[in-house]
Amino acid sequence: MKFTPAKPPLTGETLDSLTARLRENGEPAFRAKQILAWLYKKRVRSWDEMTNLSKSLRTWLADTFELMPAALVLNKQSEDVTDKLLLELGDRSLIETVIIRVPQEGVGVDHSRKTICISTQVGCAMGCVFCASGLAGLKRDLNAGEIVAQLLQVCYREDERTPRAHMELASFDNIVVMGMGEPLANYDHLIRALTILNADWGLGFGARRITISTSGLVPKILRLAEEPLGFRLAISLHGATDEVREQIMPVNKAFPLAKLLPAVKAFSEQHGRMVTLEFILIADVNDSLEQARKLRDIALDLHAHVNLIPYNTVEGLPWKRPSLTRQERFADILRAARISVTLRREKGHDIAAACGQLRLKTEKERELAAV
Ligand code: SAH
Ligand code: SF4
User: Fold this and answer.
1) Does domain 71-370 have CATH number 3.30.2130.30?
2) pTM of the full predicted structure?
């Protein structure tokens, strides 16, 4: 399903596209920089706050663009360190953006390192059997403005918590594209959004601090390797053999390991940076020591970092995480080979669990309310 907003979002404009649009309206080119500075540096939330623009230009802007295409409908802070923003888009679709705070030694939570997990689609078409985001299939792609808006909403949220002296900068440390959706299935909008986030006239956020996670769309991985902005890559592997991977990730039929792994290698050689292999541990599905040994061999060959994620149960799905002992035994096989491995522990690190489920719950509540 395609969604064409009545007015395009300002957050989807690049400096060039906005300059061209203003020119058509008889405005000088420098106005575009001023407008984007109000949006990304001063982070005003209404046209009237753009005080160095004439009243008539502000009226034209308001008639032409949506300043913020994603409205905050719920901010759910859990007892742990995640902070979930539920956002509503112009067609009432819901998406989730999650702030994961990792407190730093000796300082308060406001000085924590913040990783922001963003969504790229409403739903997902990839059909991984364990995932909440894909349960109802794909509703639609997000446009670039809706992707950028998630980060701006996070800035609004964080600016309210931090002194004004900290403004002008992005208020977070890392972006992970690990929310709802398969980012590489929405390639052009994704790259446009990340370009806006990276630009000095945008949020000025370093590409090296942005990680894109994919279920393994091989041609798009190869295309991503050619992008001038060097984004980081994470691969949702979840199975160290075709046999296991195919059971839980339908994408493995089109792109089996014999195609996926060389593409990952090509990416990492091109970038000279480690790729991350994500591996959810699901009891009795992929948690055997045999799988651990296969994963070890793959990681050694790719010189990759491995992120082991104990599965987070999803309402209505039968899968469970293995016991702590089993998780550790699996990790030990990788550690013994001196692979760089993390086994997520804290609840707040469970990015994926955070993403997708709040939306699902709210949509169910809406359906019930409509009956
Ligand atoms: N579509 C992309 C990015 C979004 S999913 C991808 O698949 O990589 C982000 C990560 O969360 C993926 O590694 C995904 O497999 C994982 N994930 C999905 N559901 C999960 C669950 N219930 N518990 C733990 N991780 C999960
Ligand atoms: Fe889509 Fe990623 Fe979930 Fe698979 S794991 S269904 S690709 S969001």
Assistant:
1) no
2) 0.93
Asked whether the beta carbons of 157 and 214 are under 8 A apart, the reply is no
Residues marked as catalytic:
96, 355
* Residues in contact with ligand 1 (CB, 6 Å cut-off): 128, 130-131, 178, 182, 213-215, 236, 238, 278, 280, 309, 311-312, 314, 352-353
Q: Which of 356, 343, 346 is nearest to 315 (CA)?
A: 356
Measured CA to CA in angstroms, residue 275 lies from 188, 195, 258 at distances of 22, 21, 17
Residue 356: count other Cβ atoms within 10 Å of its Cβ: 24
* Ligand 2 atom index nearest CA of 121: 8
CB 87 within 8 A of CB 150: yes
pLDDT at 44: 95
Residue-level length of the chain: 371
177-209, pLDDT tens digit by residue? Answer: 999 999 999 999 999 999 999 999 999 999 999
Q: How far is Cα of residue 313 from the mean position of the Cα atoms in its chain?
A: 20
pLDDT at 132: 87
Q: Which residue has the tokens 């509703």?
A: 139
Answer whether 152's CB lies under 8 Å from 196's CB: no
Domain residue ranges in the chain? 10-64, 71-370
Q: What pLDDT is attached to residue 348?
A: 45
- Amino acid at site 234: A
Instruction: Give 10-64's CATH code, choosing from 1.10.150.530, 1.20.58.100, 3.40.190.10, 2.30.30.40.
Output: 1.10.150.530
